[in-house]
Amino acid sequence: MAPSAVETKVVDSSGTEGIAAPGRQSYKIASIPADGIGPEVISAGITVLQKLSEELDTFDLEFEHFDWSSERYRKEGKYLPDNALEIVKGFDAILFGAVGAPDVPDHISLWGLRLALCQPLQQYANVRPTRILRGTSSPLSNCKIGDLDWVIIRENSEGEYAGHGGTSHMDEAWSVATEVSIFTRHGTERIMRFAFETARSRPRKKLTVVTKSNAQRNGMVFWDRVATQVGKDYPDVEVDKMLVDAMTTRMVLKPESIDTVVATNLHADILSDLAAALAGSIGIAPTSNLDPTRKNPSMFEPIHGSAFDITGKGVANPVATFWTASEMLLWLGQKEAATLLMEAVENVTEAGVKTADLNGKSGTVEVTDAVSVEIEKLARRGKKV
């Protein structure tokens, strides 16, 4: 569902096009806090989003909360109601917390909630920007702000997470389990085009295609072939290819050599977590699950997961959710608000208001309050100008 207004296009930090409309806009956001620290960070995210709306006075956000979580699964035996997809299609975007609980097998929680939304809603482009924020540091000793500034694009609908396969003769000596990676021409080409468009929109116009075609001689060779064919339509984009294992080494040793990356569902899942750690903490990493056709709402979530070890302690880092909220605003066309939010976040981290994962001493509420105050300062300074 897209906002109904006269549309002009803007391009966000990941290279995707948003919708900008004159006048005041109103957006319906489905809030799914789910498990662990999800409710804590989503609450923090909504606080700063409402503060932005209040201070800028150019758009409205209407949130509706859904109790789709592991707690619901324990009570009812399922995460989602039967009409969940129809419900969320009535919203402009989905703000998602985290799914997973110690007493529910991970494959049940993941497929029961997150993937049950992403796949049928055709959110095939998973976009994960990564950079070192002001006031934070990388564990890489020589890596400075600006050296690590990446966008990792993950194919989000098929590949290794297509859900094809099965198990037979369970618990017997001759039991067999298969997990089939699916690479279709349609799925591979659309993510490659998305990746090339993203790379083209960024200053360096550089794309790294991650593969493992030396060992996986069918699906990954196909992946490489489609990448090469699509690349012919983008002569202005510099392209290189890396085997996924070599890519991990390059990310550590030569972060400045990387800009935009495209990889399969599994490979990008792993690489993006490494990227977050190299940027300082997985607690700052955002994700956008996009349907670039805009036929369905896109879903925005922090990467960090449910983190039950710190749930309820008030120490969860809300920055990943703030950055995720900024990406959501960009997708909705609210570029001014998105930019202001990230400026507020970095002003706060630079001032030393940080959670423990960033070597700080502040809690979730303290960081949220500090960002809210900074939003007010920046917005009112802008109005004076």
Walkthrough of the structure:
The protein has 385 residues and is of the alpha/beta class. 39% of the residues lie in helices and 23% in strands. It contains eleven helices and 14 strands. A ten-stranded mixed beta sheet has the order 4-3-5-14-13-6-7-12-10-11, with helices on both faces. Strands 1-2 form a two-stranded antiparallel sheet. A hairpin with a 5-residue loop joins strand 1 (8-11) and strand 2 (17-20). The radius of gyration is 20 Å and the shape is globular. The chain starts with 7 loop residues before the first strand and ends with a helix.
**C-alpha-based Rg, rounded:** 20 Å
Shape: globular
Derived structural class: alpha/beta
Tally of contiguous helical segments: 11
Strand adjacency order, main sheet: 4-3-5-14-13-6-7-12-10-11
As residue ranges, the low-confidence spans are 1-21
Oligomer: single chain
Short description:
It is an enzyme of class 1 (oxidoreductase). The protein has 385 residues and is of the alpha/beta class. The chain contains 11 helices and 14 strands.
